[in-house]
Every structure is written in structure tokens, then in C-alpha cells.
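Incident log, structure service

09:12 report received: a user says their structure output differs between two submissions of the same chain.
09:20 pulled the input from the user's history:
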Amino acid sequence: MSKEVWIIGVDPPCPRCDLTRQRVERISKAMCVPLDIRHMIYSDLKAQAFAKSVGKETGTAKHVAVKAGINMDWDHVHAVVKNPPSRPEDFDKIVGIARQWSPEMDEAIRPCQEKADSVGILMTPILVVDRHVKHHGSVPSLAQLQVWLT
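09:34 re-ran on a clean worker, output below:
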């Protein structure tokens, strides 16, 4: 029986959401783990209904910043996206927009990730496995994804 995996993000995908998707798909293929992978936009009714069922709502870092009153330096965040200072460990296997992700990108929006739960938001990218939220707000590590998906 395959696991049901939802990757909830933005459209078009941001580097963080796209990298999460690529890693999940690559792990599924490499480890011959049958996964029923579904991609959803955080504003989809199904994503919103799921979040509500766990007492939250879906949103992005910007939604968290507004709700939590965090004064973010979005120019810095966008600069990190355009010119990533470092590359992830699996950079050679990444394609498309996900190649713009770097650990510094997640670090730049860490204040939002740290406040997301307290303001009731599942922050993108959101990873749900068999209807359980495994991670949200940053790109999960390859090692952690392997544990959750196998």
C-alpha cells in the first residue's frame, strides 16, 4: 500500500516548495517506495479544509509575518533567492526554480517559521504524509524525508 503524500505550496512554485517536491519524488523513485504524491496550492479548498481539521490555516511566510507582526526584510530574502550564497548538498540533482534555494533562504525567513504555529498557520512548503503534518515552513533535509517516506 502506498503512502499518500501532499506537498502544499504556492503557484507558481517557489524554490522551497519545488525543492521539497523534487526531493520527495527522487526518494520515492530511488528507494522504490510507492507514494501517491499530490501537489496542492495553499489556497486550494482541500488544503484549507485539511489545515482547519488540525486547527490551523494554510499560508506563506508573508501571511505569517503579517499575522505575527514580524517586520521582515523582504529585499534581503529576494536577494538570497536571486543570488544563493551556498548550494544544497544535492545541488547536482536539482532542476528548475529549485536551484535558487539555499539554506540561507530558509534562515532568512526563520522568524516566520518560528512564529507560524503560534499564529495558527501551516507555512509553505507543507509536507503531509498519510494525513499527518510532518513538516512545514522550510525545506526538510534529505535524511528526514527518507525517515518520513519509508
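09:41 both user submissions now match this output. Likely a transient worker issue. Closing.
09:42 reviewer note: The chain has one domain: 3-149. The two ends are 12 Å apart (CA to CA).
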